[in-house]
Amino acid sequence: MKKSISLALVFVMSLSLYSCATYLTRTNEMRDKLATIRIGMSTLQVIEIAGQPHSKETLLWEDGELIQFYKYITEYTLDGPVLNSDLTPVCLKQDKVIGIGHKFYKERKKTAKKILYP
Length: 118
Known about the structure:
This protein is of the alpha+beta class. The protein has one domain: 2-Layer Sandwich (Beta-lactamase Inhibitory Protein, Chain:B, domain 1). The chain contains 3 helices and 5 strands; from the N terminus they run ααββββαβ. It has helices at about 1-35, 45-50, 100-110; strands spanning about 55-60, 65-75, 85-95, 95-100, 115. A 5-stranded antiparallel sheet has the order 4-3-2-1-5, with helices on both faces. The model is unreliable at about 5-20 (pLDDT under 50).
């Protein structure tokens, strides 16, 4: 009986470690993909490189134009919900990349007139 409990415990621990390692590999791969995205690329090129984003956010910018942030998971979260700090935003305006990263996102969010789709 003790042996079967020990084996079950080892199995569960192994499965947990495998899940963590898999998630870490995926986030590292996503960071590598996002590193290839350049200013001026189209929305379609971003999706071809990085796939569909985890989430999107659309803002009405100071000049009256819409800007959209595609957010990709690039940090490892052991448990709980995916936080904004776990995501790397790619900013698109008129179907072109105009910026990437948290600093760009925070600067644009401050100057946005309105958040349209959180």
